[in-house]
Structure formats: C-alpha cells, structure tokens
Amino acid sequence: MVDVTQTNHIRAARARGASVPSNTVLAAIDIGTNSIHMVVVNIQPELPAFTIITREKETVRLGDRDPKTGNLKADAIERSIGALRRCQEIATSLNAEAIVAVATSATREAPNGGAFIQRVKDQLDLSIDLISGPEEARRIYLGVLSGMELDRQPHIVIDIGGGSTELILGDGQEPRSLSSTKVGAVRLTGEFVTTDPIDTTEYTALQGYIRGMLERPVEELQAKLKPGETPRLVGTSGTIEALATMDAIEELGSAPTPLNGYHLSLKNLQKWVKKLRKSDYKERLDIPGMVERRAEIILAGAVILQEAMSMLGTDELIVCERALREGVIVDWMLKRGLIENKLCFQSSVRERSTLKIAKKYRVDLEYSQRIADFALSLFDSTQGELHDWGDSERELLWAAAILHNCGIYISHSAHHKHSYYLIRNGELLGYTELEIELIANLARYHRKSAPKKKHDAYANLSSRDRQLVRQLSSLMRLAIALDRRQIGAIEKVRCEYKRDAKQLNLYLYPVDPKDPCELERWSLDYKKGVFEDEFGVKLFASLATVER
After folding, report:
1. β-sheet bridge partners, residue 381
2. Are residues 407 and 440 in the same domain?
3. How far is CA 431 from CA 70, 322, 331, 410, 457, in A?
4. How do residues 132-181 score in pLDDT, each as one tens digit?
5. In this structure, are 102 and 188 located in the same domain?
6. Which of the ends of the chain has fewer CB neighbours closer than 10 A, N or C?
7. Both 267 and 281 in a single domain?
8. What is the CATH number of the domain that holds 466?
9. Assigned domain for 246 exists
C-alpha cells in the first residue's frame, strides 16, 4: 500500500485558491466535431451547486476535414472563430469571471489542430484546452452526475458526438470504465453515406463498421459489471436529444421541457432508423422536431445508438441533458476545492491517475515519492528567486517526478525516451493534452541531454512551455542526484540563494549524521551543469552541520 499523503501539499495548494465568491459567473465552451456549445452558469460555492443562466449552440462542422490531409478546413475554422467570438461576447455581457474552453475529437486528430488553437488564442485571447478521449469521457460523467442521481446503482452513459462515441460505466462513485471510440455522426456520414436515401450496400457497411468498432469497448465495459448487475442506460448530447425529441413529439404530441428523464425505447429507435434510412434529406427535414443541420447526419448517429443498445443488451435509455460542458464546470469546481461531498473522490483524480499509471509500469513508488519531494522542495525554495512558476506547474513537476522512471518497464537503455512515450499514451486523467505533453517532456529530460530544438516533441511546444520544460527538468535532475544510491540517505535539503553573487547554496541533511553522502554530492556536482546554465547561477552543495 503506497503512502500518498505526500501529495497533500498539492491539494493544499489548490485549496489556497478555493475562495470563490457566491454567484460567480462561469462559462464553459465545448468545441466539438459538429457544433460549438456554451453554457453560462452561476456558481453557488456554499451549496455547492450551479444554476444555468443560458446555453448557446452553433453548428460549425469542424469534423468535415480535408479528406487528403486530414486538416481542418479553412471555412470551418472561420465559422468556429466567429462562433467563439460570439460566445465570448455573450459570456462577457453576463459578467463571466472566466471562460473555460475544451476541444475534442476533430481538433485532436487534425494535423493543424494546434494551429487552430493558437489562432484562437492570438485573435480572441481565448485559451482552449485539448483533451483526450478518456478525459472527455470522464468530464461527461461528471456532467451527468451533476444532473441526475445514480443512487449507487450501475449506469452506462453513452454520448454520441460528431467524431466519437463515449461509453462510461459508473454508479455515482469513481467510474469503472471510460472509453472513447472513433465513431460519430459527422465522421461516419462523411465516410459511409453517399446515397440519399442511403442504399442497402452502404447501410450494411455502416452498420457492420459500427459493430466492429464498438465490440471491444462494449466487452471491456461489460467485464467491469458485477454478477447480477443490470445497469440502466443514460444517453446524452445532440444526436440522442434529437432522436428523443422526435420520438416524444410522435408519442406525446410535443417534446417535454426539459427533456431530462425522457425514456427512449430500443423498439421505437429501431422504427426511427427504419424510417430515416428510407427518407431523403428533404423528407427527414420535414420530420417534426428535426433541425436542418441535424438532418444531414442523424441516420449515422441513430445507427450508432441502435447498435450500441443492442450490443449492451438494453431496451431503453434515459435522456440526460447535462454532459461535457457541465462536466467542465464541475471539474473547475473540483479543482478549487468547492465540492467535497458525493464527488469528493474526483478531487484527487490527477494524483490517483498518476499513481495508477506508475503502478501499471511497476515504478518504485517509494523511490519516486522521494524524488518528487526533493523536486518540490527545490521548486518551493527557488520560487520567486529563480523562477515564477505557480501551483499548476508545481503539480506537473510532481507527476513527472513520480513517472520519470516508468520507461524502465520497456528497457533500461534510453528509458527516459520510453518514459516520454508511456506517459504520452498512458491515458492520464484530469490533465489536458498539453499538460500530458509537458509531463512527458519533463520526464524525457530527467537524464542525458538537455532539451534541444531538434527534438520534435520539444520543438513543437510554445516558447513559454519550452522554458517550463528546461527549468523544471533541471530541478528534477538535482532531485534525482539527491537520492543517487536510492536508499533515502538524505532527509531534506535547504536552499540559500545569494542574489548578488548569483550563487545557490544547497545544504544536505543526512538521515545518518555519520554518512558523508559522497555519492550524492558527487552526483549533484556532475548533474548541476544543466541547472546552472538554465538559471545563470553557480550551485554549491555541502552537508549541513547545524539545523537552521
């Protein structure tokens, strides 16, 4: 059992910024494959809860990418920037304290996705967090939990987007299964549907492809069910809400407001799929409740849902109107320590996810915790003197220190490079894609050569992020030197910075007062060059003889 109490300083640092005034207004934007959605909420930290002030949506079709290059098309980018500008103006008019924006499948997969994010930053001064598929699934789960009570009973959440479909298994506590599969309404319409109405050959191919893609995530999810459990199915987002609206109008004469809690049966869904596959675009557009841009892609989305329900063995779903956008809000609240009750397990998701990856790759956690403690001690001691990084960067340093040696799982030779790969592809939860990239780079440069622009992963970072990697990786090199024998010979360190002399004195406190720690001192002397070059200081290490 690993003692993770050493991570409490991270939560404490986060809690220091947890003072959020009542009725704070926050906007969350979801930049999806089909549409850009925004929700603006009023946060009541004393409850804790939030109420929705307004919702905005605009179809931009980012997922309609260039078939040859995979790039986001210029017109889709222009539509998206225009939509984001309007969202920004609305949020500002409502006195939003902050706008949290995330991008998903289309931006994640496009070669020019990073350039799009940078252009938004340059033109609108709006930062966009690119999130992975599993992280998208986690935040969808948070959004659902904010809108319905699962009563500790197993529920499967399905979210069908334009580019991907997320499947989540949870019971109101930590999710048991999170998956994101590249089947979405926009993606599959572009890849499989050329006839209108769709002909039998294309429909059969579409149906077969969906079943093939969903087979593995469905099996993995079902493997996490306990004997005798019969989970309920919860459906979220545009495709499912559109189908439920059409079904409600036909069944009830009108769609309920809100749609939250509406039951859509598999039997009725199969009737809708049959009707949609026989209809052309104009006929689909005439269906009560159908939206113009949804009519183009609704069949592919409906078939995804039909096949998923059949494979999961469920005969109906419950609609939940909260999903990714609301999950972004909940995540924002969690990170500020505003939620401590039924979602308290999520407040440490980053730490637990990092430790889970460490265990997966058989990291020596006792050793890596010591390295993390030394790295954070050096970070804290030099903050405001040699660097001005804050709590969020400190947390990235902790994660990198915990995982820096995970590459040994593959091979000791060049294990720092293997560490980069494993971290980059390890599905760390709670982090954005950029944060995962930074953690991976920090681990990559814990040994051997310093960061170089000829290394693509480092060169592709912004100048600020390259500086972060250079500076924090140099601190981690010193931390590793402090435990050169990997026996915990040094209890703690103390820094003394002499500004005029540009000199940093490092005093080492051995666990055994008789231990000269010669190997640690030699290692510090050997490794200090990168640190000295980066910060423009001279480092001198010595044993501390008197507690000060």
Report:
1. none
2. yes
3. 25, 21, 11, 24, 18
4. 999 999 999 999 998 888 888 999 999 999 999 999 999 988 899 999 99
5. no
6. N
7. yes
8. 1.10.3210.10
9. yes
